[in-house]
UniProtKB/TrEMBL annotation:
Region listing for Disordered, in residue ranges: 120-149
Record-annotated N-acetyltransferase domain positions: 1-143
Top-level taxonomic group: Bacteria
Lineage start: Bacteria, Pseudomonadati, Pseudomonadota, Alphaproteobacteria, Rhodobacterales
A Pfam family recorded for this sequence: Acetyltransf_3
Protein name: N-acetyltransferase domain-containing protein
InterPro entries recorded: Acyl_CoA_acyltransferase, GNAT_dom
Organism, scientific name: [Roseibacterium] beibuensis
Length: 149
């Protein structure tokens, strides 16, 4: 799997994932790349786009917000797990960020499992009224202690 900044050629993938909101989402991600150098990448393999995933700056919350949207035909192939592992490594190695969070709706049970297998833990605050949960990951001292067990 490879990642590239969002570009005009990413439009079909954004449209497939986000429907009529795709063009606006792509414009937002491209703007964030230009301003901050942090925004979701377009994910691809063997020359074919698979989805969109990466980080946003977590305004109002400590750390980076992780997201991953794969085209439905890519679900169940282990690509989300592969992406999350590489993204967390990138967050620590390149951004020097030790805290990452993800916001998961109740309809995304598979995504919740991927995050849990990747070491994310549920935020202790109760889910929102819509059932949305915040999952948190940290490479800090508590995380290192978990690895020794």
């Amino acid at each position: 799997m490879s990642c590239r900044p969002p570009e005009a050629g990413s439009a079909p993938t954004y449209r497939a994932l986000f429907n009529e909101k795709g063009p606006a989402r792509l414009a937002l991600d491209r703007g964030e790349w230009e301003r901050r150098g942090v925004a979701p990448w377009t994910l691809s393999h063997a020359g074919h786009d698979l989805g969109v995933g990466g980080f946003n700056i977590g305004f109002g919350r400590k750390g980076l917000q992780l997201s991953c949207y794969l085209l439905p035909e890519q679900w169940g192939n282990g690509l989300a797990s592969e992406f999350v592992a590489h993204a967390l490594d990138y967050a620590v190695r390149v951004f020097r960020e030790t805290d990452v969070f993800a916001i998961i709706g109740p309809e995304h049970r598979a995504a919740l499992k991927v995050l849990e297998k990747s070491g994310f833990r549920r935020d202790p605050t109760p889910p929102s009224q819509s059932g949305t949960r915040v999952m948190c990951w940290s490479a800090g001292p508590a995380r290192r202690a978990d690895r020794r067990r």
